[in-house]
């Protein structure tokens, strides 16, 4: 079983919808929780990170971490066609540097 | 804006041939990572450098893969001999310091082994 499991999707929503992307994990030592966006044939781009538990908001994006449930989420409000991409969750142990990634959820936002 | 550079962007090679990928991290970034991303999966760490030293190569198939960062700046990842299962995207990332969540990825090299 993988340390990080991510809902595989694909996910298709109409423009303006609220999108929820989720990951679960098994390693309780993870302290940093990241979300990356990856466009086709490109490298991942860091969207947001959260340290330990709690919520973090950045514009239309909200990241949530529930360490008691080992569950993290990314919410996208007012989704746009430009949000169409693969979203990867990633986690790391404090001071380790390297990240463990989920397999990604491919999102399509239709105009 | 500073970026991680990788070359080549695409590489097609035959099974049993040697192949090499190059990465130039963001200037001043001491930590460099090589990840492999198989289609439909997330990146998996192959090797992590701090300056010129290997910090973690536990997932690097050392019978055929090698990596170096001789002067602590750019890095080369080599596969010899290539196998069909090596077809994947090879991603390089760099961080300004070790132990941080911040990783900046390059565009990757897509390898196809025929």
Structural account:
Chain A has 111 residues and is mainly β. Helix content of chain A is 0%, strand content 58%. In chain A, strands 2, 4, 5, 9, 10 and 11 form a 6-stranded mixed sheet that branches. Chain A has a 5-stranded antiparallel sheet with strand order 1-3-8-7-6, with no helix packed on it. In chain A, strand 4 and strand 5 form a beta hairpin. Chain A is globular, with a radius of gyration of 13 Å. Chain B is mainly beta. Helix content of chain B is 0%, strand content 48%. Chain B is built from no helices and 11 strands. The radius of gyration of chain B is 13 Å and the shape is globular. Chain B starts with a strand and ends with a strand. Chains A and B meet through strand 4, strand 5, strand 9 and strand 10 of A and strand 5, strand 9 and strand 10 of B.
List low-pLDDT spans of chain A: none
Helical percentage of chain B: under 10%
What spatial form of chain A do the alpha-carbon principal axes imply?
A: globular
**Beta-strand percentage range of chain A:** over 45%
Cα distance, first to last residue of chain A? 37 Å
Report the radius of gyration of chain B as a whole number of Å. 13 Å
The average pLDDT value of chain A, as a whole number, equals 93
Subunit organisation of the chains: heterodimer
């Amino acid at each position: 079983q993988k340390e990080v499991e991510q809902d595989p999707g694909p996910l298709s929503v109409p423009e303006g919808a609220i999108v929820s992307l989720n990951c679960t994990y098994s390693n309780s030592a993870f302290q940093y929780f990241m979300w990356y966006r990856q466009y086709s044939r490109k490298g991942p781009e860091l969207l947001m990170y959260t340290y330990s538990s709690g919520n973090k908001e950045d514009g239309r994006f909200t990241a949530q971490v529930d360490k008691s449930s080992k569950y993290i989420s990314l919410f996208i409000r007012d989704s746009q066609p430009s949000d169409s991409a693969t979203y990867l969750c990633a986690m790391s142990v404090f001071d380790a540097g390297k990240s463990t990634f989920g397999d990604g959820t491919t999102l399509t936002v239709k105009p | 804006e500073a970026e991680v550079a990788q070359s080549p962007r695409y590489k097609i090679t035959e099974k049993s041939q040697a192949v090499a990928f190059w990465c130039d991290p963001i200037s001043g970034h001491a930590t460099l990572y090589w990840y492999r991303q198989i289609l439909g999966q997330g990146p998996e760490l192959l090797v992590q450098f701090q300056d010129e030293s290997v910090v973690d190569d536990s997932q690097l198939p050392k019978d055929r893969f090698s990596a170096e960062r001789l002067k602590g700046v750019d890095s080369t990842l080599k596969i010899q001999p290539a196998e069909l299962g090596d077809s994947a995207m090879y991603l390089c990332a760099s961080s300004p310091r070790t132990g941080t969540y911040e990783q900046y990825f390059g565009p990757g090299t897509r390898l196809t082994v025929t």
